[in-house]
Amino acid sequence: MAGIKALVGLSFSGAIGLTFLLLGCALEQYGVYWPLFVLIFYILSPIPTFISRRVSDDDSSSNACRELAYFFTTGIVVSAFGLPIILARKGTIVWGACGLVMTGNAVIFLTIFGFFVVFGGGDDFSWEQW
């Protein structure tokens, strides 16, 4: 039952994050959809961690594959926060839209982190229970 509550909570927080992102694009005073390119970073951010968990069999505290995956994930997350700032500095989007997109970024990346904390802990978890 705890897994279902966690799944519902994560989906709710993901919906809140996407709402902030869409508000930063679709409100009448903003009206530019360039910030939606951060969706690419949302898709790319968990991929290095998935690959490193699949490739490395070592569960020690540190190994090169896992550290490289953390490095790439950090670069992707920083890029997702940097894109709206660059768009706002260039004048492509308004600073209010930048703030909404940054809020959405924070909520979405915390949701992705929460997914790894809740469902990525060990091998005892099975997707077949859903």
TrEMBL record:
Signal peptide: none annotated. It is a multi-pass membrane protein. Keywords: Endosome, Golgi apparatus, Membrane, Receptor, Transmembrane, Transmembrane helix. Pfam families: Vps55. GO terms for biological process: late endosome to vacuole transport via multivesicular body sorting pathway; negative regulation of growth hormone receptor signaling pathway. InterPro entries: Vps55/LEPROT. One of its GO terms (cellular component) is Golgi membrane. The chain crosses the membrane at residues 7-24, 30-47, 68-87, 93-119. This is Leptin receptor gene-related protein. Belongs to the OB-RGRP/VPS55 family. It is found in: Endosome membrane; Golgi apparatus membrane.
